[in-house]
Amino acid sequence: MANRAYVDVLGLYNKSNGQSICYTRPLEVNWLAHLSTVYYIDETKELWDFTHPNFEADIDNNRYKKLTFTAKIDCLLHGYTGYFTSKLYKDISISIHPDSHTAGMASWFPMFFPLQNPLYVKADETFNIEFWRKVRPEKIWYEWKSHDGLISNQDGLAHPIFL
Known about the structure:
The chain has 163 residues and is mostly beta strands. Helices cover 4% and strands 37% of the residues. The chain is built from one helix and ten strands. The protein has one helix at 4-10; strands at residues 31-32, 63-70, 75-82, 85-89, 92-95, 111-121, 126-136, 139-145, 151-152, 161-162. The strands form three sheets. Strands 2, 7, 8, 9 and 10 form a five-stranded antiparallel sheet that branches. The protein has a three-stranded antiparallel sheet with strand order 1-6-3, covered by helices on one side. Strands 4-5 form a two-stranded antiparallel ribbon. The longest helix has 7 residues, at 4-10. The chain starts with a helix and ends with a strand.
């Protein structure tokens, strides 16, 4: 049985109105998702860090990182989930990370990055994912490349965030 978020992304079920989701490439869109049931194949890992305010002369908010995960058990991977923690001031932070979630905060949700082709992994098998955050004067976007070599949302064609 497929992961519920993955089924929603495919447009097979939209709980708000029962209609298809209107994206031509829904598996290349990063989705905000209220994930009520999640299986963590491996421990969560930090992807990027941003500092604000940034007083550098040349600010570059492009990012790239390759992460390696190891499956705990045999399972089917449908995508990746992204969380964030934000340090607001000194020791004051807010977080949607499962290990440090801010109590009572329900207004922000994790991001779900679906795989175009789900991956069956066996216990103790390692696999990689590559992530980019790209910035241009008119837009920003995220790209991700998984086991099959396909780059999702390349050049922001499926899901740009216009500035």
